[in-house]
Fold these 2 entries.
Entry 1:
Amino acid sequence: MHESVGKEEIMREEQEIENQIAIMLKGVANHTEVSEIREKLREAKKENRPFRIKLGLDPSAPDIHIGHSVVLRKIRQLQELGHIAVIIIGDYTGMIGDPTGKSKTRKQLSREDVERNANTYMEQIFKIIDRDRTEVHYNSEWLSKMNFGDVIELASKCTVARMLERDDFNNRYTNHLPLSVHEFFYPLMQAYDSVAVKADIELGGTDQTFNITMGRNIQRDYGQQPQLTLFMPLLEGIDGVEKMSKSLGNYIGISEEPAVIYEKVMKIPDNMIIKYYNLCTDVHPDEVDRIQKMLDEGANPRDVKMMLAHEITELYTGKENADQAQQRFETIFQQNKVPNDALTILIDPASPLMHGEQMIDFLVNNKQYKSKSEIRRIFNHGGAKLDEEKVTDERSIVIGEGVHILKVGKKNFYKVQLQGN
Amino acid sequence: MHESVGKEEIMREEQEIENQIAIMLKGVANHTEVSEIREKLREAKKENRPFRIKLGLDPSAPDIHIGHSVVLRKIRQLQELGHIAVIIIGDYTGMIGDPTGKSKTRKQLSREDVERNANTYMEQIFKIIDRDRTEVHYNSEWLSKMNFGDVIELASKCTVARMLERDDFNNRYTNHLPLSVHEFFYPLMQAYDSVAVKADIELGGTDQTFNITMGRNIQRDYGQQPQLTLFMPLLEGIDGVEKMSKSLGNYIGISEEPAVIYEKVMKIPDNMIIKYYNLCTDVHPDEVDRIQKMLDEGANPRDVKMMLAHEITELYTGKENADQAQQRFETIFQQNKVPNDALTILIDPASPLMHGEQMIDFLVNNKQYKSKSEIRRIFNHGGAKLDEEKVTDERSIVIGEGVHILKVGKKNFYKVQLQGN
C-alpha cells in the first residue's frame, strides 16, 4: 500500500511540474531547454523553496501598456504557482542606460528622483504582479559597492567578440558609428544583478535575449547555477502590425477607462486573438487551446474577441467594470449595427471650437449634410443621438475618452473620438 | 640699454629651450610636434615650474639591462635640465598586467610583496635617474578609490573601435583569439595615471605608443593639457639584430661586473655604435655628431667602440672601474691579439665536472689536442695562461663572470665563459 501511495505522490508531483512548465511556456518565444527547466523545478521542489524570478526595470520607462504587461503577466502566473518576483530597479545601470549610441554617460538622477520614478512605476506594476510575493531592490545596493578591481573581475568574464555579437553593438561597430567601451557595461551590470539576487529565472522580451543570456553566463562564472531564461514575443499593437507603443498610438494602457480598454481590444485583427490570449491574459493554456479549436470550427471571431476584451478589461478594472463596458459596447455597436466603415469624427480638445461645433463642421466639410443649419434643424427636432441619448443642442456636447457613436436619422452612424485617444 | 638687455635675455632663454629640445629628442623614434614641445617648455619656464615626467613601471619587470635604460637615461637627461621624474608603480594595473591574451586576471600580490618588488626595482633605477628629483607613487593610490561609476566615466572616454586599433587587440580579435573586455582597462588605467599625476610628458618605448597616446587623449577628456609624448626606439642587443632581452642572452645588465659590461659593449657590430651612443649614454647630441663625423672620416671603429665601452662602463660602475676594465681589455684582447674567431669554451656551472676538467674535455672533443694527457703536460710545464696568469693545475681553475682568455702555447687563444652569461 505504502509503495503505491508513494508512487501516486510522485505522479502527482510530476504532473504538477508538467503543469507549471505548460503555464511557464505559454506564448513564450524562446526559452532554456525544457529538460533543464524540469530539473530545476524538481530541485526547488525538493529543497522546498520557490524560484526567484528576476525582473530588471529601467525607472525611466513610460506608463505601462499591455505591451509591457506581457512579461509582467507571466511573472504573475509564476507567482500564482508559488514563486517569488525579485524586482531590480536599475538606478545604477540607469547611469548608462541601455546603450543607444550616445557617447556621454547619463546625468545621475538624485536619490529622490529615482525613488519617486520607481514608486510611480511600481504602483502600476502592482496592478499586475502580486505585491506580497515580490522583493524590490535597487541595483546600486551592490553595484555602488564595487571597486575598480571588482569591475575588472566582472569585465574579465566576457570577451570582446562575444560582446560585439549583440546586434546593435555589431551594427554600430561595423558601420563605424561611435560605440564607447563603457556601453559594454550595461549588459555586464545587468548580468551581475542576476548574481547579486541569485536569480533562478529571468524573463524579458526577445529584444533582451543578449542581456539575459549574459546573466546566465555570468552567474556560471561566479559559481552559481545559471538562471533559466524565458523570452516573451514582442506584442503587436491594436493595428496588428507594429510593435505596441505609445508613440504609434496603437497601445492599450492598463490605466485606461474600462470602455476604452474594451473597445481597443475589439479593434485588433482576428489573427491576433490567440496571441493576445496567450500574452495578455492569464487564461490557462488548455483553455486557450479550446478557444483556438472554437475558432477553427467556425465560431464568429467577433464573439471570441468580445470574450477576450472582457477578459483583459476585467484584469485591469474588475469584473463589474468589464461587464458594463461589454454592455455599453453591445448597446452602441451591436444593437445599432454600426458599420465597420463608419466615418470617424476626431475632436481636437485643444481647439477653441466647442466639441459639438467641431462635429457639425466635420459633417458639412465631408459632404454628409448640405449646411450647418440643416444639421442643427435635425438636432433640434430630436433626430440625432450620441451614445443612445438625444442631443437637441450641440452646445451641450462634451466628448470624453473612448469611442462614441453619433447616430443621425435612422441609418447614418459616425464614430466620435478625442484626437490622440 | 634696457631694451637690448631684455633682448639678450630672451635670446638666451630661447637658446636654452632649443638646447633642451635637442637633448630631449636625441635618439628619439617618435614624438609630439616640436612646436607643441617648444610652447609647453616656454609656458613651464614662464610659470617657473619643472615638467612632470611620467614613467609607469610594472613591478614584475626583471633585472634592468641597458635596453631598459634607454628610457631611464632620457629621463635622467631631462632631470639634469631641471625637470622632475614621477614614477608610478603599477601595483593596481598589475592585477591585469599588459594584456597578453590570458583570460584570467592576475592574482593580486600582497602589499608587502608589491613593495618589496618595487624597492628592488627602484634600487636599480636609481643607478640611472636622480633620486632627489623623483616622486614615487603607487597607482592604487587613486585607482583603488574609483567606484563603478568612476570606471564607467573613464570607459566612456574611448570607443571600442579606437581600442581595437591597438595591434595586439586587433590581431587577437581578427584571428578569433580570446580578448576579454577587462583587457581594455590596462591602457585606460595607465592613461588615467597621467591624469592623476598631472603629467607634462610621458616617455616609453615605441611599443608603448598606443598606451601613452591614450594618456594624452584621456587627459584632454578630463580637462587637462595633454602630455607630450616621447617614444624611444627599441635597442638591439649586442648581436645587433634582436631586441635586447635577458632570455636571448644578448643583454648588458647594469649591475654586471665592469669588465663584463666593457667586453659586451665591445661585441656590438660597428653599425650600432652611434645608436648606442644616442640611446645608452648621456653624451650631448653635438658630441655624438662629432663622433659620427670621426667615423665618416675613417676613424677605426674599434677605437670608437672602446670609447663607447668606457663611457657605458663608467656610467654604471664609475671612472676607476671603467679604466680598469679598459686596461684589462687592452692587455688580454689587444696586446695578445686574440682573433675574433677564437673558439669559445662554455663552462656549465651546474655540471659535477670541475671547470678545468670541462675545458680540457672541450679541447680534446674539438680536436685541438690529441689527448687530455697532452694538455695536462702543457699545463704542468707552464705553457698555458688564463687571463695572463699561468695555470699549472687545471683543478685550480674557477671561471667567474665575463669573458676570459685561455692562451695555450704562443698562438692558440680560446674564450672561456660560463654558460648563460
Note: Chain B has a mean pLDDT of 89.
Entry 2:
Amino acid sequence: MIYVIGIGPGGFDEITPRAFEIMKSCDVIAGYTVYVELIKKYFPEKIFYISGMRAERERCLMALKFSREHNYDVALISSGDAGVYGMAGLMLELADDEEVKIIPGITAANSCAAVLGAPLMNDYVIISLSDLLTEWDVIEKRLICACEGDFVICIYNPASNHRPEHFKRACEIIRRYKPDTTPAGYVRNIGREDEEAKVTTLGEIINCNIDMLCTVIIGNSQSCILNGKFITKRGYNNILPS
Amino acid sequence: MIYVIGIGPGGFDEITPRAFEIMKSCDVIAGYTVYVELIKKYFPEKIFYISGMRAERERCLMALKFSREHNYDVALISSGDAGVYGMAGLMLELADDEEVKIIPGITAANSCAAVLGAPLMNDYVIISLSDLLTEWDVIEKRLICACEGDFVICIYNPASNHRPEHFKRACEIIRRYKPDTTPAGYVRNIGREDEEAKVTTLGEIINCNIDMLCTVIIGNSQSCILNGKFITKRGYNNILPS
C-alpha cells in the first residue's frame, strides 16, 4: 500500500494526526531530501528513501517497488499538500493496480494567507510560474484570465535560479489589469524558523527579492490593507445584519 | 487575544496539533453550532459560544467582547480553513487594535481532491456559487474566465435550499467551454462518517444531487480518469527523464 502524504508548511505541529499516524505505521518514508530531513527525527526506526529535485518519477517507481517486491507500506511525502503540484498525480498515474491513498495537508496558499492576514476570503486562483511542465504562453494566458475575472491570485514557484525573471514578467502582465495600489504580499520559508513576510502593494512587490522559497498573493478589487494586514473583503460588513 | 482557527474537513485527526494546542490554551471557543459540536467533547472545561448561520458579525463582536472585557483568550473556529470564505477576514476587519492571529487548516478543495484522486495538480481556481455576498454576474464572469484560462475549477457552496439552481446554471456556463467528457467529481460531507464521493464527467455531474454539503471539482484539458481516480496531469510523465 502506498500513501501520498502532505506534511503541511514545514512545522511539525502542522502535520495532521492522520498524516502522522500513517507515517508511523509505514515501513518506508520516501521523499525529496529537505522534506524527509524535516520529519526524520520523529521516526528513527524507518527505512528512508531520499531523492533530489526532478527525481519525482524515479521516487514513485521506487515506492511501487518497495510495495510490490517487499510488501512494504510506503509513505511518499510532499511539503504542503501532495495534491497541489506535489507527488499525488504522478503516483496515481504510475500505480496501475497498486492501491494508493492521498492524505491531504495544508497547502502554501493557505499557510501564506494566514501569515499575511485574510487575502483569500474571496474567489482565488493558484498559478505556478514554473515553465518546466507548463508552457509560458499558457501561464501568461492564465494570469490574464485571472485578472479579467478579478480573482485574488496566489503564485507558487514565483522564480528560481534558472528563471529569475518570471516573477517580474508575471507582475508586468498583472499591472496591465490591476492598479499598482492593489495589496500584495509574500511569505518566504513559511512555517520554518527563518520565516519572513511582507505586506505591500503590486507596484512595490515587483522590486522585492522574490525567490523560489516564496509564496506570493496579489489581491483583487475587494482587497485592502488594514492595520498592516492584507484582507480581501467578502462583504459581510456591508450587507449582513449588524 | 483572538485566534481564528481552521479545524479542517471535520475529522478530529485532521486538526493540526498547532490548532489543537491553541484551542486547549484558550478560555472561550466560539463558532457556528455544527463546528463547535464537532470539537466540544475534547475540551469539556471551556466556555462555548455558539451561534447560527449568518451570525458571523455578531460572533466576531462577541469574541472581541470576551477578549476586551474579560481578558479571555478566544478561539474562533471555522471548518476547513478560516481564511477561505471563513471568519478570518471579518474578524480582522472588526478587530481594530485587538491582536488577531490566523491559524490555517486544510480547506475543502484539498480534502475533496484527495478523496477524488489528484485533480488539483495543475493551476486551479476556487469559486463560491453563493450570491449572498457576491453578485451572480460576477460569479458568472469568473466561471467564464476560469474556463478561458483552462483552469481546473473547484466549486464551494454549489447550492442551497434558497438557490437550488445555481449549480446547474454554473454547469451550463462551463459546458459552453469544456467538453461534456471533462472529468468531474464531488464529495459530500468530507471527512465525516457519512462521506460520499463520485468521480464522473461534466456532462453527468449536472444530473447528480449536488447540495450545500458538497464540494465539486471540474477538470481542465489535462484531466483524465484512471482506475476510477480523477487526475490532472502535470506533465512529469511526458518530459522528465525516466
Note: Residues 1 and 99 of chain A are 5 Å apart (CA to CA).
